[in-house]
Design a protein that fits this description.
Blueprint: H1 3-18, H2 26-30, H3 38-44, E1 51-55, H4 61-68, E2 72-77, H5 80-93, E3 97-101, H6 104-110, E4 115-121, H7 131-141, E5 142-153, H8 155-160, E6 172-176, E7 188-192, H9 197-206, E8 209-217, E9 229-231, E10 235-237, E11 239-240, E12 243-244, E13 248-255
Parallel strand pairs: 1-2, 1-4, 2-3, 4-5
Antiparallel strand pairs: 5-13, 6-7, 8-13, 9-10, 11-12
Helix pairs in contact: 1-5, 6-7, 7-9
Length: about 260
Amino acid sequence: MDYLSINKEAWDKRTKVHVKSNFYDLESFKEGKSSLNKIEIEQVGNVSGKKLLHLQCHFGQDTLSWARKGADVTGVDLSSEAIEQANSLKSTLELKANFIANDIYIFGTNNKEKFDIVFTSYGVLCWLPDLTNWANLIANSLVTGGEFHLVEFHTFGDLLSGYSYFPRAEPDIEDEGTYTENCDGEKSTMITWAHSLSEVVNALISAGLSIEYFKEYPYSPYNCFEGLEHVDNQGYQMIHKGQQVPLLYSIKAVKN
């Protein structure tokens, strides 16, 4: 099964929807609003003058938000439509950025450049069949002392939605709409994989990275799942049997 072609087609289609959505609020971004959230801003810290690689960057809002903070940015994404939109946005805003349309595994095999920071966030790992190769490409892309930062949706939410928490040999194959408000009911075939927290952490450790930071959060900045409720000054939460569900986790790892 050619999962890359199937997922690329789906994300090319999604991108055309997302750039017009209130969820991504492109017009406000063009006027100067950052797309980054407090979690990643505080975790990553000062990026001025640093080389930053953004894996699975979609159409570049977060990448360009880091550029606005002074980073020398490179964004990589499977969707050629997303990268086309990212380059258009870069030109409109007159920002410096390098965008690459490629599968991140292929990028990792060919990349010779080293970065101070590798960053990826929010709904990225489920599209990857192999976290060992993922972690190795991160380690190989970092300078000594370089940092990897991940902010990701917690897999516990997937479990409550009926998906596997633990990795399985076969992926989930489903016809799904997108998560923005203007999905119009259109669906695409999408192929995803389950990854437990231990699999993520152990992949990074096995690649030679030292875990310096791990944290879980009961709130999400995005209202993109069923059953979420808004909490003032926090974001969105999910309550299960009277208790908060972990919705996000973040990791900082360093190459020694």
